[in-house]
Amino acid sequence: AAVLLLALAGVVRAGPMASVGEVAVHDAWARASIGRMRTSAVYLTLEVTGEQVDRLIAAASPVAKTAGLHSHVMDGEVARMRPVAAIEIAPGAPTVLERGGLHIMLTGLKQPLVEGETVPLSLTFERAGTVEFEVPIKGMASSMSHDARPPAHEPATH
Questions:
Q1: Among positive and negative, which fits the CA dihedral 60, 133, 149, 85?
Q2: What is the distance between the alpha carbons of residues 84 and 57, in angstroms, rounded to a whole number?
Q3: Distance (Å, rounded) from C-alpha 95 to C-alpha 72?
Q4: Which of 54, 45, 144, 39 has its CA nearest to residue 102?
Q5: Which of 11, 28, 59, 139 has the most CB atoms less than 10 A away?
Q6: What's the predicted TM-score (pTM) here?
Q7: pLDDT tens-digit profile of 24-83?
Q8: What is the pLDDT at residue 76?
Q9: Torsion angle of alpha carbons 118, 154, 37, 68, nearest 10°?
Q10: 5 phi, psi to nearest 5 deg
Q11: What pLDDT does 154 receive?
Q12: Would you say 149 and 68 are in contact if contact means Cβ atoms under 8 Å apart?
């Protein structure tokens, strides 16, 4: 029914990039690293295909020392990234990880992330388990599925 509603709304979504249990991962992409920066971010959409809430509780990639779950919060007029313990995914409403909001922060990159290549990513969900897949790397100026505007603030460190 959801696919029919999306089709009627003029939105055609291909199948998920990855899925595990009742969680589907759509539209994942990683930001190409810039210069000698050893950080990047992954953005994606998560959907529960069943009736029960699930939570993203961990992420990992062999190309990064850590892959943490983060959110942007405003501290006065400054956007700051803060770690979050988990990201809830409720049935019936996709959870979007995007610039300026929830995202997966890759820190301690062991190699540059080059536009046009892919990066391996593992996501662990509280109920569904773990899924591993390849995430395309895109440049900041490329057309991106969630938000094509440049970020308001993306610090190099935490």
A1: negative
A2: 9
A3: 15
A4: 45
A5: 28
A6: 0.80
A7: 999 999 999 988 889 999 999 999 999 999 999 999 999 999 999 999 887 888 878 899
A8: 84
A9: -60
A10: -65, -40
A11: 43
A12: no
Three-state secondary structure call for residue 40:
strand
Spatial distance between the Cα atoms of 121 and 42, rounded to a whole number of angstroms: 9
**124 in helix, strand or coil?**
strand
Q: State the pLDDT confidence band at 122, using cuts at 50, 70 and 90.
A: very high
Helices and strands (H and E) in the chain: how many: 1, 11
**80 sits in which H/E element:** strand 78-83
Q: What span, in angstroms and rounded, lies between the C-alpha atoms of 53 and 58? A: 16
For residue 18, the model assigns a pLDDT of 95
Q: Could you report the per-residue pLDDT of 127-150, keeping only the tens digit for each?
A: 999 999 999 999 976 544 444 333
Q: What are phi and psi of 2, to 5 degrees?
A: -65, -40
Answer whether 54's CB lies under 8 Å from 23's CB.
Answer: yes
Both tokens assigned to 151: 């970020």
Contact in structure between 106 and 39 (CB atoms under 8 Å): yes
Total length of the chain: 158
